[in-house]
Structures are given as C-alpha cells and as structure tokens.
Backbone:
C-alpha cells in the first residue's frame, strides 16, 4: 500500500476518505440465476427514506449488560442523498427505531461490546414501513456485508480495487461463477449500467482482482451493486470493493 493511501485512511488528505464494501453469499444455488452477493439476498431498494428497526437474533447483543455488541453506528444517505449517521443502542431481540430516516443504509459498524468483543447474533436494519432488510451484520463480524453502496451527495467515488472470490462448500463439481457489477446514476428510476462482467472457473482460480481505470469517478447519488450467478449448488461467493471518496472541485 502506498503512503498516499495510508495518509488518506489516517485522515491526512483533505476531502478524501477510504471505504470498504463487503459482500458475501454463503450458499448460492444454480437455480437462483443472478442474485446480489449478500447473505440476505437481493436488496429491495426503497422508494423513499424510512426509519430503520435494528435488532439482533441474540439477546446478548444488548446495551444494558450484554456480552455481545452493545451499540452500532448506522451510516447511509437521507432522502436528498446527503450522508447521515447515528449511534444506536441495541436491545437484544427487540427492535430499536432509528432517529434518522434512510433512503439507503451503506454500513452498520459495531461501536461498543461486552466481554466477547463482537455481535453474537445477526444484526439487521429493517425498513420500518417496507419491512425489508436494508443491511445485515453477520455474527462475530461487527461490520455489515451486502455488496451495495450509494455515493453520498457532494462526494464522488474512485474505485481502486475489486476482489472476487468463490468456493465450493460441499458435494462434487467445480463451479463456474459469473460476477457482474452495476451502477445506477441518480438512483431509483434510472437504468442500471454494467461496470464489468467477469467469469471465474474454480478449477483454474478461486480469486480474481479487478483494477478499474483511476480516471473514472462515480458521481454522487449513484447506487452500486454486485451480482453473481453459478452453475453449481452450495457455491460460496464474496466481493470486496475498495475505494476513495473525494470531494469534487466543481
């Protein structure tokens, strides 16, 4: 890693910050076709901003005295596309309603925890009205996964690196997986534009790296998603997007 990227991650470069968007589908089937690389399945994009209900599948993820995760940082964008965030104290299995209304939830990040140091259950952010999961944090990870991201208002995204990974969990066969990345400038109502299309034959490789052109900046209020298709059941797929958020000069 160059000193430039280290300085950005440390907040030493004005107007720039790094992001990591993680996607994971632990058991994709051949019959599913292309689906989002996310354990919770395809994201149902909201048409309007909503408050989120945060809850865990473990009673130990509780702010009062839980051994698991106690508080979570929710990061996303509001109805205008502007970046918003807030800290939420968890209440185990019970829903905790956010103060802010989110058009998109970009990240859930663990803040404080009990003796285990992480979330003991699956933590979800579910739209209060639409009742659809907008972000999910898998047990013991303290960071959400979902292969989706929306660029906030006033920022632009430079994608520096994309990592694609696949594995066969059980049974015979070496799956061939096709990954597609899409961007939708302007959000809902606009067309999804394909950023790239890559195939992976696990008999040859289980990992691929995509390095986009550094001159390509993805503008504010653009939705990004990663999808995958496999020809074998029980295929595990992962994506990682690394990028730099910049403040455009005009």
Residues:
């Amino acid at each position: 890693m160059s000193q430039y990227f280290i300085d950005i991650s440390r907040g030493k470069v004005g107007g720039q910050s790094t992001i990591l968007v993680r996607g994971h589908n632990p058991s994709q089937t051949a019959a599913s076709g292309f689906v989002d690389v996310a354990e919770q399945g395809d994201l149902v994009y909201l048409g309007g901003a909503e408050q989120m209900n945060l809850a865990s599948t473990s009673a130990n993820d509780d702010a009062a005295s839980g051994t698991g995760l106690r508080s979570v940082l929710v990061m996303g964008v509001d109805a205008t596309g502007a970046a918003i965030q807030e800290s939420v104290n968890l209440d185990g299995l019970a829903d905790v309603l956010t103060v802010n209304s989110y058009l998109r939830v970009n990240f859930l990040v663990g803040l404080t925890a009990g003796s285990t140091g992480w979330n003991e259950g699956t933590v979800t952010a579910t739209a209060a009205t639409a009742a659809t999961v907008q972000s999910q944090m898998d047990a013991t990870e303290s960071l959400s996964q979902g292969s989706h991201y929306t660029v906030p208002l006033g920022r632009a995204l430079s994608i520096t690196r994309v990592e694609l990974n696949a594995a066969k969990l059980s049974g015979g066969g070496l799956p061939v997986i096709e990954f597609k990345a899409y961007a939708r400038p302007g959000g809902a109502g606009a067309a999804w534009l394909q950023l790239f299309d890559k195939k992976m034959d696990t008999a040859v490789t289980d990992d691929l790296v995509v390095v986009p052109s550094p001159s390509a900046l993805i503008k504010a209020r653009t939705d990004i998603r990663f999808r995958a298709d496999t020809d074998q059941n029980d295929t595990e797929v992962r994506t990682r997007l690394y990028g730099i958020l910049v403040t455009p000069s005009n």
Summary: The chain is about 5% helix and 50% strand. The mean pLDDT is 91. Residues 65 and 153 are 38 Å apart (CA to CA). The first helix runs from residue 3 to 9.
